[in-house]
Structure formats: C-alpha cells, structure tokens
Specification:
Elements lengths: L4 E4 L9 H14 L6 H8 L4 H12 L7 H16 L6 H10 L4 E5 L3 H11 L10 E3 L11 H9 L7 E5 L2 H9 L3 E5 L13 E3 L5 H5 L1
Parallel strand pairs: 1-2, 1-4, 2-3, 4-5, 5-6
Helix pairs in contact: 1-2, 1-4, 4-6
Length: about 210
C-alpha cells in the first residue's frame, strides 16, 4: 500500500445515494419556484454541502431559500433513504479488505453527520465506521471544493496530507482533494472521467479500486 490513510467520500462512493438525494433536491427547489431538473442538480450540487445550494440560488435569483429549507430537505432525503438506499456494489468488499490488511481508512462527506449515519444504518455500513472515523463538512464550516474537510480528516487521523489518498466521484470532491495536497482516484460510475480532471486514476467499479491503491 502506497498510502497511510484512505479517505472515502460517502454519497455515490459508499452509498448509492446521489440519484435519490438529487431527485429530492431538484423536486424541492422546483416546488419552491426555482425550476431544477435532476441533471441540473447533479451538475451544480453533487458532492457539495447544502450551503452551496443557498449560495447559488441567491446568486442566480437574488432570493433566499426558506429558513426551514435545510430541515425539510434533510427530512425528505432521509425518508427516501429509508425506502430505497443501497450500498454501492462492492463497497463492503473494499472496506473489508482494508480492515483485514490493517490499513487505516475514514470517511469525509459533505453531508451532515445525521444524514451519514442514517444512510449507514439503512445499508449496514455502520459496522465499518467506528467513532472518530466519520467527518462531515459540519465539522469545518466550508464544504468541498475547499480543502478544509480533507485536511481535518487527515489531521484527526494523525496522517500527513501527502500520505493520504481520497476516493471521490464528484468534480468538487476531486478539486478539494487536490487542494489538500492529496492523491485522488475518481469513481466514474456516475461521473465521466473527463469531469474528474486531476485524479491520479479512474475506476468504474469498486473491485477496480484496490489494485489502484497498491
């Protein structure tokens, strides 16, 4: 293993949540008078923290989203997770292989801690992430593409940024990893490799990740 720490994104990398979350987000924004397609949501918000939604809507329309926007979006998203969320195929095999080899790993997500844990309970991934291994944009205030979250995860895990590798599936996430001085591998199940520019390599299915790490 070339790295001392593997940092996983969560949505779209470990849990197959991006289709669900972006469908909910697009529908809610449209309901509020900000017409947004599923494709628009993926393009503009995939991989980002919810503050980006507020920022872009205000920038584009001059209007602010309702005060209860975050709470309502969270409730609708978690409800969709409870009905339909599945783990990304092969994700548990990768986590199991890392654990068996004693290779440290953690998770750094733009989602809230509550949303991350809700998704993990539904999918059974909670058994792979103990206390102190789950990091959220909530912890640092600025989400991706800022490097803060990945730097916070590395610091908390006691690892130098240059010894970390990030596993990401979004343009904003790749940008954040590179800004943090980390290698990054791009998961192309939903995002074309061309949109993940700067990644050290790309893979389309989870079984392809371990050889890249080695």
């Amino acid at each position: 293993m070339r790295y001392d720490l593997v940092i996983f994104d969560n949505d779209g990398v470990l849990v197959d949540s991006e289709p669900l979350a972006n469908t909910v987000l697009a529908g809610y924004l449209t309901e509020l008078g900000h017409p947004t397609s599923y494709e628009d949501s993926l393009r503009d918000y995939m991989g980002s923290a919810v503050h980006r939604v507020h920022d872009l809507v205000r920038e584009r329309t001059g209007r602010s989203l309702p005060a209860d926007f975050d709470a309502t979006l969270h409730a609708r998203t978690v409800a969709a997770f409870a009905r339909e969320l599945k783990p990304v195929p092969g994700a548990e095999d990768v986590l199991g292989a890392l654990a068996a080899d004693g290779i440290p790993y953690c998770l750094a997500s733009s989602g809230s801690h509550e949303r991350i844990r809700a998704g993990h309970r539904v999918t059974g991934l909670d058994r792979w992430f103990g206390d102190g291994t789950v990091f959220s944009a909530e912890d640092v205030g600025r989400g991706k593409p800022a490097p803060d979250l990945f730097l916070h995860a590395a610091r908390s895990m006691g690892t130098a940024p240059g010894r970390c590798v990030v596993v990401e599936d979004s343009r904003l996430g790749v940008q954040a990893a590179l800004a943090a001085g980390m290698d990054v591998y791009g998961f192309t199940a939903m995002t074309p490799a061309a949109a993940l520019a700067g990644a050290a390599g790309h893979f389309a299915a989870m079984p392809e990740l371990l050889p890249l790490l080695d």
